[in-house]
Amino acid sequence: MTSRTPLSLLALGIALALPAHAYEGMWMPSQLPELAKPLREAGFEGDPASLADLTRPPLNAVVKVGGATGAFVSPDGLVLTNHHVAYGVIQYNSKPEKNLIDEGYTAADRASELPANPDYRVLVTVGFDRVTDQVLQAAQGKTGRAYYDAVEATNKRIVSECEQEAGMRCSVATMYYGADFYRIKQLELRDIRLVYAPPRAIGNYGDEIDNFMWPRHTGDFTLLRAYVGKDGKPAAYSPDNVPYRAPAHLQIATDGPKEGDFAMLAGYPGVTYRHRFASEFKERIEWGLPASVEVLNDLIDIVQQRGKTDPAAGVKYASQLSSLKNSSKRFSGELEGLRRSNAIQVRADAQQAMYAWLAKSGGDAKATRANIDQAQALLDGASAMRERDLLLNLLPLQTQLFKTALTAQRWAQERGKPDAQRESGYQDRDLALIEGQFKQVQRRYDAGMERALLTELLGRYQKLPDAQRLPEFDAAFGRDAASLAATLERVYSGTRLGDEATRLALLKADPATIQQSDDPLLALAAQLQPAFLRKEEQGKQREGDLLRLRPAYMQALMGYYRSQGRSIFPDANSTLRVSYGTVEALHPRDSVTYSPVTTVAGIVEKNTGVVPFDAPKPLLAAIAKGDFGSTADPVLKTQTVNFLTNLDTTGGNSGSPVLNARGELIGLNFDSNWESVSASWMFDPRYKRAVHVDMRYLRWLLAKVQPAPQLLKELNLPAE
Amino acid sequence: MTSRTPLSLLALGIALALPAHAYEGMWMPSQLPELAKPLREAGFEGDPASLADLTRPPLNAVVKVGGATGAFVSPDGLVLTNHHVAYGVIQYNSKPEKNLIDEGYTAADRASELPANPDYRVLVTVGFDRVTDQVLQAAQGKTGRAYYDAVEATNKRIVSECEQEAGMRCSVATMYYGADFYRIKQLELRDIRLVYAPPRAIGNYGDEIDNFMWPRHTGDFTLLRAYVGKDGKPAAYSPDNVPYRAPAHLQIATDGPKEGDFAMLAGYPGVTYRHRFASEFKERIEWGLPASVEVLNDLIDIVQQRGKTDPAAGVKYASQLSSLKNSSKRFSGELEGLRRSNAIQVRADAQQAMYAWLAKSGGDAKATRANIDQAQALLDGASAMRERDLLLNLLPLQTQLFKTALTAQRWAQERGKPDAQRESGYQDRDLALIEGQFKQVQRRYDAGMERALLTELLGRYQKLPDAQRLPEFDAAFGRDAASLAATLERVYSGTRLGDEATRLALLKADPATIQQSDDPLLALAAQLQPAFLRKEEQGKQREGDLLRLRPAYMQALMGYYRSQGRSIFPDANSTLRVSYGTVEALHPRDSVTYSPVTTVAGIVEKNTGVVPFDAPKPLLAAIAKGDFGSTADPVLKTQTVNFLTNLDTTGGNSGSPVLNARGELIGLNFDSNWESVSASWMFDPRYKRAVHVDMRYLRWLLAKVQPAPQLLKELNLPAE
């Protein structure tokens, strides 16, 4: 990492090849054997072949927890994940007189382990099978919407068949944008219990202020335990259930990481865009991100202003405000990072090199290029409606009652169809989720706030050029501010959807009743629905064609990579992936170096006594005492807290176990540094780092701060 | 610098001995021979004896420029100082159509060198003589005010005699709080010209945002030239004047600093409090700083609020607001730093150790301790009025017209006395300064703003306990908000001091006319004057006794230091001092390291194109070109900008030359890091750093960015 000159030149907009992306890659386990050489060069001491099958140890110890990741760490179903991933479980078990978020929790014995909210799940992947031929056969010869529907239908059938087996949750994962399909079969553990959680002031030390920041000092971990019926099969909570005998578990290491050490990580990264077209990078950077930040910041202003004059409304929108701010901050950071990495130029150059290689290749090269050009034309066409589409996407996302009405109309429309033919999200399996949303509205809705947000978004719509307008919207809201205000006044003063019972009744009501309802908001949703459906239909047409055509781009990329002796991983899609790399310092800017391991000294330095820097007294006392025993770092001579690696991660990797060269658990992934927010699009090895809890900190907390000797014993670890 | 554990413990309030203060010290040149051993250990290659006399080379190349420092760098009177020290000169030569602040300036030849504002001075120290016996003899046997007056009278006489010699400016410096006195004789060069200044976007790159910050990327330097009459004597500007033949000059080095290198610096540090009583540290930290920050922040709010509703007033108070903010920020930083260094405890422990040593010493130990105890009692007594004194000090500082009226009354009172007997600041030599202040009011006064500020300060006064109240103030303003408002309304609606001619006339008016003026503001000042004089008188009584008694504390400290084989330097007092140490990295907090040398990559990283990060296009182009020639760092392979040392500095050290082990000029001091704002009280070697312009950056700018080959030649440097 000596990048002083490249950095300055990059920032000046001068195109330069980035350093080799040595540790870029969210690899499918099956790809690891082909990476044996670089794995060993990075320091891995095990057999790469042992990592190839995610249904065998050690990868079958890695589980999906909520939308994130965790790992079995004992034979008795003990699961280690992040405090923030288990947050709902801790909150669910908190009472006003016993707030486990604030106090933390240690189950004295198994009987004291607290049941999670009933919808909380741990999924263990037990099958991962290629179904590409089956899926593509059905779609063969089709285009557009027909292609999309054929793939969807096959996928639904595969899922349905797979879920015939009791206790299984199945899905079909699309790899390489449609080049490959895999059926994923997961054991669905439904009785999950809280075993050990540090207090918020350890588990979320620094909170939003330190979020994305390094140096970090957060004990972001929690221990859960999965239970099953006496027959060993998944079951809902019952006091008679027994701990799940995990097929494999990870052993926490007794020594810790230091700069340069090998590290690897397994988890369920959500979504990346690394293999998108150069034009998509350009559009994201030049339009998508700046435009999103602009409209989000306007919405933030509205919520903040109204929240000041109407504090009760402010409270209801606190969560939405926080989410808006988080999105705006993330988008801004992503933009900053992509610019710093000169992403438009770098990606354009890489694509150009690939095309040059393709032009010289034999075989199907011409047909491949023709398909790529078709895909490019589709992408270019989609840009024509981008301003409108941004607003249409935000309407249901930023509203409560308006979204309810749209969902109710859609639900009414889909309900009449056989379950398998319904739109995803409106099948019977989705009903509980929709009901939850309808209930949640009660805590999050304020009429004045929703009208203000709609006035902003629809006001922006009214200013769009004619080519992007929708007749249904123009008919409903007119073309000026006065008519928009009049419509909103009429609709919101008349609607009865503010009442929870009324909303919930919609889920059982006769479709025609909903569609012909005289409730003005339901009627408005019915009036607008054709516009939303038309947009969806156009989207599916395009998606279908892209699903058909993008694989050409991916195949060209694969061939080009192969010609250079490099492997290529499919963009992340919430399936199990493995990253490897090293513990590495960060040079965020000129003259500044962040060492890759933090210590408890930083907790004391940051501590103000005020949330979120209000470390508990027992922690401060233990730090002052300096009694770190076997968990102290042998060189730093003090207790470490978090560490940094160059591993390739993204959202969904929360809770991913980090392993050392011998496959022992040394860390728990929980965040990225701010400089790598742009990594979902571009992995820049100068800045991309992942942030982990050092397992020695966990061990020390369990030994000295919030003692749990029974757990240290179960974890097969020294008592101190 | 391995301070992880000490830091955490310190922050917890646990008393620990700080690391040895290896490089603490603003030494009088005469002390350097006794420091020969540590100087050589630090890496100095010259003869320490050569540094003993500040009237001989190399120290006589170091000059006082404005309130700061500079150095001769050529035989022809070329002076190197900071851009911010020469700012007034650059501004004075700017015109709307030719803004030298924005554009920078390069004099093509001597004829193009631009005369500075006539009051701009460069002072060359030509005499430094101990006058302790003379001063103390006159004071012997006296106490309180009489002691103070005796010292003042002797000092004035010494100054007056010394200034008989044409072209000399003289002063008496008090060392060790009254243990020692020195007569300082300085040649007063009055024809100073602007030779070379980079544009603001180089010389002040980062401005307030980067002020006190590291990493830093500022080219904060300017070249001036001193001229004298044809007879070689100081003279006011004349086109016939000739360059001053400097008795010595510093040679700019051709190689640059790297971590661990020896460095030394000479300059005129303003004021430090390192040898104050432990109780003064405690009072500063527990009361003085927090109380000042609180009242300053209220004044900031007032100026900002009124500035919003009355933009014209806002513009007039922009400078005062900026100064208020700067003070509040500095005080907050000082408080933070002193707490981080656990200064109360550390100083109390050190004092206790000194007392323990004293108790075991023979000789005058008992008499010494008795004097110290008397001084302690005086200091404790002063605290009783601290809230009132803070407000009384702020009244003239934060007002324009109110201050004018107070000054006018005082001037009227002093004018009647023989010049030598007048209060300092009201002698004939001070008239030009007062006149300047009276003129300046015009640009900085707004009646509404001043009344709002007075309402705040006097409102606070009204809430003081009776013991701290002043009858004159109570009579003038009453004891409630209504009577205060009524007085201010009457005074400010009636005063004629808003008129510049009226103000200036006061300086020539008959004292009785002023004292009996019917102008309501002058009358108010006359009414309040006895209270201010009483406070001043009490202060002088105390100062006199402290001047008499503090030397006992210093002598005890000296003896204690001597017993440990250590030297002690007098607290800074704007006299020439030398610091030595090394180029050293900074570990500001856990896991963060700032390397001690920055590079041009940082300029590009910070550059937004918006002030203050709007590097000029030629600079960015030159960086992109990467043509650094002989000025590039041989290891970093790029152009350096600023560097960091552990040298002991404070305000007034701006423009101090930084020398390497061979006495060559490697840097120009211009700032400190934020973590060392508290260093005026406590030098904490973990955090204390000084920030310098790397002379290689100056050389590169003169060679490649804003070329001045004639100056490189005069500086005896390579052309590129």
Automatic annotation (TrEMBL), chains A, B:
Residues 1-22 form the signal peptide. Gene3D superfamilies: Trypsin-like serine proteases. Catalyzes the removal of dipeptides from the N-terminus of oligopeptides. Keywords: Aminopeptidase, Hydrolase, Protease, Serine protease, Signal. PANTHER family: PERIPLASMIC PEPTIDASE SUBFAMILY S1B. Belongs to the peptidase S46 family. The keyword Lyase does not apply. SUPFAM superfamilies: Trypsin-like serine proteases. This is Dipeptidyl-peptidase. GO terms for biological process: peptide catabolic process; proteolysis. GO terms for molecular function: dipeptidyl-peptidase activity; serine-type aminopeptidase activity. Its EC number is 3.4.14.-.
